[in-house]
Design goal:
This protein is an alpha+beta fold. It has helices spanning about 30-35, 110-120, 130-135, 160-165, 195-200, 265-280, 305-310, 315-330, and strands at about 5, 20-25, 45-50, 60-65, 95-100, 125, 150-155, 170-175, 185-190, 210-215, 225-230, 230-240, 255-260, 285-290, 290-295. It folds into three domains: about 5-130, no CATH class; about 135-150 and about 215-295, ATP-grasp fold, B domain (D-amino Acid Aminotransferase, Chain A, domain 1, 2-Layer Sandwich); about 160-215, Dna Ligase, domain 1 (2-Layer Sandwich).
Length: about 325
């Protein structure tokens, strides 16, 4: 029985998971990544951490096992895979790594969390680096790679969007610069009687920055989410839109379909990996449609459970392995 042991003590908004935790189901593994801890214990923030063993305490272990374990029943829900003790406070510097896993929007509360994390700089591994989280916008970051992305503009002008739409053959996608989860994304086509209203609403009548890209017809076949750890791919899932839906986001009805990382994907990964490393972005999700990069997801990339289910492997364990490798490298040097 293959096992990976991590000396871990988690603290989270719902309680600290200190005791022996035995993972019996691949669907549960993402909980280790989504575990939340902060010595401020904000209700909204989430700083997940891997704690160093204390010399004054008995070591605690999280054991991740392969999904072919048959000696005990699998956990049906993530909550069934954990035993929790009472919450306790710890300094961020006591942890080997701190994972920032707060869902967008990147608002004032999110900004505060990154400022708090700055005080742990140099004392622990930050996943992802708060400075990079502030500097990189998930929609605008792709502008650094014009040869890998569809034609793109950023504007507050509805008239400029109409000009861009005409130049791109009559169909564009518009999305708010600060949007997330598919919210506020529209496909605008020639002949749509709602087109002017959509563009005016998207730009807030000239007050809100809006990103527009050429519409990619391959979007109907799916939006590929590629998960990276330190610039290396750990898996991918194709998110196929539901009928009469332009968005492939899973929480709005998209369907998760098994896929593979192809040569074009690897070309994109090779190009963006150094950029991501330079900004301290370790756990990242790339969105690729028809071989074109459309977004860089750095705040809280999803898809781990779906890749695990479709590929029948412990993807979260591989992500933790990658982070553990960075921890060892950091300590060595």
């Amino acid at each position: 029985m293959l096992e990976q042991e991590f000396c871990v003590q988690y603290g989270c908004s719902r309680g600290a998971a200190n005791g022996i935790v035995r993972k019996r189901d691949k669907l549960v593994a993402e909980q280790h990544i989504r575990a939340q801890a902060t010595d401020h214990r904000s209700k909204e923030g989430s700083l997940a951490a891997r704690r160093r063993p204390s010399r004054r305490r008995e070591q605690r272990y999280v054991t991740l096992e392969r999904p072919d374990v048959t000696d005990e029943p699998s956990a049906l829900r993530p909550a069934e895979a954990f035993q929790t003790d009472r919450p306790s406070l710890h300094r961020l510097a006591e942890f080997d790594a701190v994972l920032m896993r707060k869902d967008p929007p990147v608002d004032v509360s999110y900004l505060h969390a990154t400022w708090i994390l700055e005080h742990a700089r140099g004392k622990t591994l930050l996943v992802n680096d708060p400075r990079g989280l502030r500097e990189l916008n998930e929609h605008l970051a792709v502008l650094h790679f014009p040869t890998l992305t569809p034609p793109t503009i950023v504007t507050r002008s509805a008239a400029r969007l109409r000009e861009f739409q005409a130049a791109q053959g009559g169909a564009i996608v518009v999305k708010p610069v600060d949007g997330y989860g598919g919210l506020g994304i529209f496909v605008v086509r020639d002949g749509d009687p709602n087109a002017s209203s959509i563009l005016e609403t998207s730009t807030g009548a000239g007050t809100r920055w809006t990103l527009a890209q050429r519409y990619l017809p391959d979007a109907i076949h799916g939006d590929k989410r590629i998960l990276l750890v330190d610039g290396e791919p750990v898996g991918a899932v194709l998110r196929v839109p539901a009928a009469a839906e332009a968005r492939g986001n899973l929480h709005v009805g998209g369907r998760a379909v098994k896929t593979a990382i192809d040569a074009r994907d690897r070309e994109i990964i090779t190009a963006v990996a150094p950029f991501l490393r330079s900004h301290g972005q370790i756990f990242v999700g790339l969105d690729v449609i028809g071989g074109m990069l459309t977004e860089l997801n750095i705040t809280s990339p999803t898809g781990v459970r779906h890749v695990a289910e479709l590929d029948n492997r412990n993807v979260a364990g591989e992500i933790l392995d990658g982070i553990a490798h960075l921890i060892r490298r950091r300590k060595a040097g």
